[in-house]
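Handout, page 2. Input:
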Amino acid sequence: MKIQLSDHFTYKKLLRFTLPSIGMMIFSSIYGVVDGFFVSNFVGETAFTAVNFIMPFLMILGALGFMFGAGGSALVAKTLGEGDRKKANSLFSLIVYVSLVLGAVIAFLGILLLRPVASLLGATGEMLENCVDYGWIISLGLPFFMLQMEFQSFMITAEKPQLSLVFTVAAGLTNIALDAIFVGGFRWGLAGAAVATITSQFVGFICPLVYFVRKNTSLLRIGKTKMDVKALVKTCTNGSSELMTNISMSLVGILYNTQLLKYAGEAGVAAYGVLMYVNFIFISAFIGYSIGCAPIIGYHYGASNSNELKGLLKKSTVIIAISSVAMVGLSLALATPMSYLFVGYNASLFELTKNAFFYYSFSFLFSGFAIFGSSFFTALNNGPVSAIISFLRTLVFQTVAVLVLPIIFEKAGGRGITGIWFSIVVAEALAVLVTVAFLFAKRKKYNY
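Output:
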């Protein structure tokens, strides 16, 4: 039976509706992991380090896709909840057209800035050339990446989460197959990995584009529109937290790399890269759940259904709490096999990565609550609160922690690098406290 945004959501129905988006995000992160596996094992440690070193800058360039996807889908879902389907389709079409233009501009700027930025961040010699070789090809695919991220959100708003999962799986399998052919088979190195990635992004972009352009059975279709500056501003405001999250995570990633170069050299950056791949998989489950819930929350907010909002918040809290405990256990169990999978060829790097896993795993106790809290306020069309949570979680708390904790650990007789691994746990715990404070402060305004 088809699940509609207007339904009453039990635990079972909520999980059924959000599972495709969870699977979609997990699968997206897994094919990124496959990229790292092929680069690390077939191209080498320096190339693997370069990919992880330049990736935060590339993610900053593509962050607008997350902003327009989350902010736009929240606005469109609210408009659908208010009963104005024609306006919802016009807003949807406008956001897609504007994103295409911005994507092309950002891709051009990315190619121009790639070498000076990589050099400024500290890349030299072979590592610098690897950053440039990989980065300029990835930059060409930024328009596809941005729209792929947006369509993932809009497919859920259109009540087609299963179809979104199908498109994501198609894109992921494309990337995995081409990685195996270009990197493992043809030995094209970093260029092969980059080509495989942007090809998969094109698949993830073109499939939903064709679907929405043609007549379909969903709530949304791309068609005629008109310029609506107010709506675009609202979209950017709603999605500012997602923009802030991705930019902040990238900036913090750059800071982590800088600190790790200082305390552990290139080996530290490589170990952090492995942690990020696993982190992407685990965090993507929370992000996927939040993306799946957002249109439901936005719809019932637009329909002034406070009882359903209360139920969604309560059920989501329980689901995330259970998932968080399970993820910590799974992460601890995967520490050895995942470390060996990526860097088993280097004994000292393997031990460094496995040790980092132990400390990093406990961050999953807290991260899901802050991610959902930020998404919850985005769905309520309260971009400022959502942005504050994201800003504190992904930039302020992590920046302070990664700079201060290594010093504290060294003064206490420990190792500075242990402070770096533990900093994410402290930052996520603080973010949960802020999230809880906002949920209590705003409960009367939104009646949840």
